[in-house]
Structure formats: C-alpha cells, structure tokens
Amino acid sequence: MSRDNWERLVVAVLKRDQIWQLCHQDSITTVSSNFSQRVLSFSSNDILGHVSSSPSPQLPLTKHSVVKDGKNASGTISQKLFSALPWRKKPKDDLVGIPEDRFGLESFSLRELLFATDNFSNKNILGRGGHGTVYKGCLADGSLVGVKRLTAQNDQVMMEKELEISGLVSHRNVLHLRGFCYTRTESLLVYPYMANGSVASCLRERNELQPPLNWAMRKRIALGAASGLAYLSHECVRGIIHGDVKAANILVDEKFEAVVADFSLAKFVDCYGDEVVSAKFAERYDDGGVNGTVGHIAPEYLSTGKCSEKTDVYGYGVFLLELITGQRAFDLARRSNYEDVMLLNWVRKLFKRKSAEVMVDQDLECNFVYEDVEKLLEIALICTQSDPEGRPSMPEVVRMLEDGDGLAERWQEFSLQNDYENENYCWEVYPEWNPIIDDSITSSNASADELSGPR
After folding, report:
1. How far is it, in rounded angstroms, from Cα 139 to Cα 158?
2. Are 130 and 442 in contact, with CB atoms under 8 Å apart?
3. Which residues in 350-387 are b (16+ Cβ under 10 Å) and which e?
4. In the prediction, which pLDDT does 314 show?
5. What pTM was computed for the model?
6. Which of 229, 183, 222, 200 lies closest to 127, judged by CA?
7. What is the mean pLDDT of residues 207-212?
C-alpha cells in the first residue's frame, strides 16, 4: 500500500470512530489528536508507511499489518489502532466508549437498561418531554432509577450537555445524573428515581389514594426549588440558567424535598449574568430561537431571544403560582376571558381585587395560613415583573422565603410602580417562537411536556 493510501486509511479510521464514539469530549479529543499526530509522523524514506523512528511511540503493528488487500488492511489497522488508544474503553454490548472517570459517572450497558425497563415497556413510562421519554427502571442490584431515552434528533447534543452539567453540579436540591449509556442506536441517561414524581403530577395528576400536597409541603417545596436555582446561578462553578423552570421540572423525593431537574434547555452564564454557550457546543446548543413552555417564559426572552438568570427568576415566580393555585400556567379552561388563559394574568386580576383566598388550590380545603399565602403571592409577583432589573436574584428569593428578609422593601417598591396592571402579553404574536405546549392543550398524538410521573 502506498504512503498516501496508508495515511488516508489511518485518518479515515480515526475520524470515523473517534467522532461518534467519543462524543467529542475535550480531554479525549486532545489525547486522540496528539496520538494522531504521532501516528502520522512518517519519515521521508518510509515508502510503505511504517512509523518513523522518532521518539514518538510506535503502533503495535505486526508483519501481518501490511497486506496488499485493502479490505484486510482496513480491518487490521482499525483493530490495532484502537487497541493501542489509551482512552479506549472495552465495550459492553455495543456500548460506545466514553470514559467513566471523565465525569465520575457509571457507564451502563444497553442490555442492563433494557432489562431494567422491561425493554422500554409502555407500562413503565413516567413521562414524556420535548427531548425524550422517561421510564422507570429496576437495576440488578434492586435500586430504582429513571431512564431518560433521548429522541434521535440532537440526542448527542443533549447527552453532551447533561454530561457537562453533571460534572459541575453538586447540591441536594439539584437532580444528579447517576450514569449513562451511549450506543449506535440509543442515547440514555440514568437518574435516581423520585418516589413522589414531579410537583405537576402531585398537584394535578394524583390518584384517589394519594393525598394532596398540604401547605407545609408546598412551603418546603418552594424553598427547596429556590435553593436549587440559587445554587445553579450563583454557587455553581459555572453559573447555569435552567431555561425551563416549571412544576413539571421540579421533582419531589420521598421526604418531599424539591429537586430541580431537566437541563435540556440549560445555558451557562458569564460573569455579568448574561447567557453564554460554551464554545464547544455553541453552534449546536444555540439555535437562535426562543424555546420553553407557554406561560413560563419571561417577556424579555420572548421579545429578544436573550436570557439571563432573571429569566429563571421569572419562571420560578410562575412556578410559585402553580404551587399556590394548583393550576397550569397556561390553560384554555380559563378562556372565559382570553387574558385569563395565562395563570399570571388571572392571579394579578384577583390579587388586585384583594381576592387572594380565591386563588388557593381547592385541594387544601382552607387548611393554609393566609399570611403565608399572601407572602408567597407577593414574592411571585415581584419575580414576574416585566422589567428583569426589578426582579430579585434567586439568593434574595431564598432569604425572603426563609425569614422575609428584604420582602417588605421589595414589595413597597413594586406596589409604588404598580407594574402588574399593564403586563399582559400574548404568545401568539411571536411566530418564530418554538414553545413547548402544556399537555392540556395538545392533541392525543402530541408529546406532552410535563413529566407526569416519578422519574
């Protein structure tokens, strides 16, 4: 084989397998790139393409490695090259090798997860979202997990994002990724199982035997979710904008501790609080459009397509209203008045009329503290101001929830501006927007955005 053909063959094998097998991880790319340079360092006199006698280590080639038959040469070279690569992980059931120690995560085989979920049986579906379906699974050791099966479109991008974020976060109110499985046909993420499902399912999809969330639980959930979001934006190694804060993405464990989940729309923030996407994934993460769920998206994001940590504050404010009222952020059942299909507009109207008690979830059967309801409503309205500069930061929200620190001053300023009277907006005026619609208004064939069960 000529030197040119040899070089092309080596490069083709490296590129083909490295790109899709290794998910383009930075550390792996560096190793493989350096290795490729060593592999392709031929001497000027090396007609057959043997590795030059430079200090670079030689490939473990045998006399059978150089043959005239191109097909045999391809198979031999592929085998020898990848057996020599230090990052090559021994595959399990066609598992594409991503080093476990790169992220400190467990690498599951497809066979393990097929067995755990009963071959992704419909009876084990916990919920569906815009980026995949979540299944309940039971591993061989008896532990319960939620397995997210990513959709084919952009599954690798979502996998990379989840893996990158998982390497940064560590907080009891943020869902941690347990492991993953990435094969030629499947992209799977494995999470701890949340026994009580999502807040949305607890509020609106509980069975007759399941008691409603009492007021103490709702206060605990409100504080836990705020703590998780405050960690993401201000305490994490890199600030993270969640991008889709809502009751469906706040999970509840067996102790009714809130856990922020689903980072499919997440972005990183820079030191000024503005959104920024890591250069590595910039072209694939940021499509230039507006993505999110109707009723949860901040108006400045709708109008400009730019988000910041204050867009999560807005989403949290709407989440508080879900927690208080038990209703969806967007619901055509309130269409007696078109503006009222937005939960926020409906709440503002009733709050202005001093009818706060009318808004409270009927499942509570008046078993709540009115002062607490008023406090949470004030925080929610402050968080959902149209001007992002007027909204508090998430650490401020945590302090308001814990002991009311700063709430009186914030509320007085908000009341003087009387901002909430003129903040109605309509999502239909943004045709370029790519919203995720709540399952209450989707057809039976459409994928619901809320993960309606534990995961």
Report:
1. 23
2. no
3. bbeeeebeebbbeebeeebeeeebebbbbbbbbbbbbe
4. 97
5. 0.70
6. 200
7. 85
